[in-house]
Design brief:
about 240 residues; about 35% helix; single chain; Rossmann fold; six-stranded mixed sheet; four-stranded antiparallel sheet
């Protein structure tokens, strides 16, 4: 059972826009020098969309991902995530919205080595609510079943292949039923076969549950598997394909 989320719908009402950023800027102070990572960038992502963000090193791609994932806030501009204004939230508010609205999948898996696959998937729920331990385990087990690891729940990360570890990370990202899943180079540490399987899994989960997927990648073949690609250069949208 994949965690329930709204199916894709036709039309583009305000409720269908899960990510809306307008005139986003991000300026870092490096001593006396200001580095402009984002320069008035605007982006909208529909609920249930699968899209990629691409750009060379230094393009602002990672900065944009951090803002969209509520890991950081813009210097100026408006950002709404699933209808909530994010741009001016305090750190503890950012942490709360991040836990409720965003699931993360990283290149290096980010699994705790001493606990099982089931325990790793349970972690986001421990921070989200006062849910009973039995309910957490049931939801974590359902998420692992959804990614094809029902028979690996009691295995620790070092007992799993790279592809299996990434599946655990995807289950962990989905378990709180987030508005979006941010996948940062999700196939970067995998061989080609395992990487293709991970992308197919993300696409299948999107089709079955309507989960919005945002993939940050350097790989044009990965981007080709998504519905739309935003190309970033020098802190601005260069083109959309």
């Amino acid at each position: 059972m994949v965690p329930s989320m709204a199916k894709k719908q036709n039309g583009k009402s305000k409720a269908d826009i899960v990510v809306s950023g307008k005139d986003l800027t991000k300026v870092y102070a490096m001593g006396d020098v200001e580095v402009h990572a984002l320069r008035g960038l605007s982006v909208q992502i529909e609920r249930g969309e699968v899209m990629a963000i691409m750009g060379p090193s230094g393009s602002g791609k990672s900065t944009l991902m951090n803002i969209l994932g509520a890991l950081d806030r813009p210097t100026s501009g408006e950002y709404y995530l699933d209808g909530e204004s994010v741009a001016e939230l305090a750190d503890d508010q950012l942490a709360d919205i991040r836990n409720r609205k965003v699931g993360f999948v990283f290149q290096k898996f980010m699994l705790l080595p001493r606990i099982t696959a089931l325990g790793n998937v349970e972690l986001p729920m421990r921070y989200a609510s006062g849910e009973l331990a039995k309910q957490r385990k049931q939801r974590a087990a359902a998420a692992l079943e959804a990614v094809g690891l029902g028979d690996r729940m009691d295995h620790r990360p070092n007992e799993l292949s790279g592809g299996q570890q990434q599946r655990v990370a995807i289950a962990r990202a989905l378990v709180n039923e987030p508005a979006i899943v941010m996948a940062d180079e999700p196939t970067g540490n995998l061989d080609t076969k395992s990487g293709d399987e991970i992308m197919e899994l993300l696409l299948t989960l999107n089709k079955e549950s309507g989960t919005t997927i945002i993939v940050v990648t350097h790989d044009p073949e990965i981007a080709e598997m998504t519905e739309r690609t935003i190309h970033i250069r020098d802190g601005e949208v260069e083109k959309i394909t």
